[in-house]
Every structure is written in structure tokens, then in C-alpha cells.
Amino acid sequence: MDWLRAPFGSYWTDFVYFMIWPLLLIATLVYIFKKNRIHIPNFKSVLIVCVVFWQVGMLFGGLYSAVWYFDNNAFIGLKTGGNFEFVYYSFVTITTLGYGDIEPVSYLARWLSVFEACVGLFFISILIAVLISRTDKKT
What confidence tens digit (pLDDT) does each residue in 46-61 have? Predict the structure, then answer.
């Protein structure tokens, strides 16, 4: 499992893995869809919502890291307290999965988690609305 932990830990590698990879993935998908002439209704709107969703998840990961920096007892279940753990917790929270392996303990961490879960539900509803809006216009 050292190959999984090796890239994470410095701010530069965190930036590369969490910001550049999604952009490369999106660029690859856009290229494949254009080359094969696959048309997805409202593709640009869906893409924008997904990119903003990713960025909001990354923002909350940074906020959790800042909370932990000022209060090391704000979370239970962290193994290293590295940035990857906070990004992982952020996306588990924003998608409302809630595995339970990392738990917020302080009031600030709990309220931030509740707010992120509400933002995640908002984004999911926006994504569904964007997908349906194109379908409604055709009928």
C-alpha cells in the first residue's frame, strides 16, 4: 500500500493529484465525446456543475484541514491527519455516504460537516434539474 501513500503529503503533489487530474479527465472525456460524435444534452452545463462540485469538495477538505490544524481533537479516526484524509472525508460528507470511519467531534467540525452535506444535496438537485431542463423543452 506504500504506492498509494507515496504521492500524498506535500502541497505540490496534493495540488497535482486533486486539481490537475480531474481537469485532465474532463479534457479526455470531452475529446472522446467530440471525436466519436457522442451528443449528451446539456453537456456543458453538466460539466460545469461537476467541476464546481469537485472544487467545493476540495474547498471543504481544506477547511477541515484548517479546523484540525487549530484543534487536533476536532476529528476521531484520522490516521495521519494528511490532506488526503480531509479530502476523503469531505467527499464522503458531500455525497452523504457517511462511512463513519472519520467523525467530527468539535462543534465547528460538526457544523461544517452538516453544512457540507446540505451543499451536497443542493448540488445533486441542481444536477438533476440541469439534466431534466433539456428534456422538458423537447416535450
Answer: 777 788 888 888 889 8
Distance, in Å, from the CA atom of 123 to the CA atom of 96, rounded to the nearest integer, reads 12
- The answer to whether the CB of 85 falls within 8 A of the CB of 79 is yes
Which numeric CATH code is attached to 39-133?
1.10.287.70
% of the chain residues with pLDDT over 70 = 77
| Domains in the chain: boundaries | 39-133
3-state helix, strand, coil in the chain (%, to 5): 75, 5, 25
10 φ/ψ angles, rounded to the nearest 5 degrees: -100, 160
